[in-house]
Amino acid sequence: MFAVTALAEIIGCYLPWLVLKQARTAWLLLPAAASLALFAWLLTLHPTAAGRTYAAYGGMYIAVALLWLRFIDGIPLTRWDLAGAAIALLGMAVIALQPSENIS
User: Fold this and answer.
1) SS3 sequence of 19-47
2) Helix (H, G, I), strand (E, B) or coil at 98
3) Which letter, b or e, does each residue of 49-70 get, where b requires 16 or more Cβ atoms within 10 Å of its Cβ?
4) What is the DSSP letter of 72?
5) pTM summary value
6) Residue 7 in contact with residue 36, Cβ under 8 Å?
7) Could you give the C-alpha distances from 104 to 48, 65, 101, in angstroms and in order?
8) H or E element: which one contains 85?
């Protein structure tokens, strides 16, 4: 679900970028707003505390943004991009997969 959340955020930011940087139609702002609303809603579906969700989400966002760079922007990834994404995803896994604590 983190990947879909990241994709919704990236689309919501990319469409206004097209409007402002490439003089595309302002109508793209409507699906951009819908995509950002979807992003915010998807974040609420994650079962952990909001701060932990945002922290873990950051790792996935980095990986999805690099996939966007490769497949949408058409820019080849470097070994540094791949290493950074791996480190970010490892950090995400440490946060997201930590054992739960029973507080009595």
Assistant:
1) HHHCCCCHHHHHHHHHHHHHHHHHHHCCC
2) coil
3) eeeebebbbebbbbbbbbbbee
4) T
5) 0.80
6) no
7) 19, 40, 9
8) helix 79-96
The number of C-alpha atoms within 13 Å of 101 and in the hemisphere containing its C-beta is 2
The one-character DSSP state at 97 is T
Find tokens 């290493």 and name the residue.
83
- The residue written with tokens 């058409």 in the block is 74
Contact indicator for 59, 91 with CB cutoff of 8 Å: yes
Which pair of tokens denotes residue 63? 């990986």
Cα–Cα dist 69/50, whole Å = 28
Asked if residue 20 lies in contact with residue 56, where contact means CB atoms within 8 angstroms, the answer is: no
pLDDT per residue over 60-83, tens digit each?
A: 899 999 999 999 999 999 999 999
**Tokens matching residue 7:** 């994709």
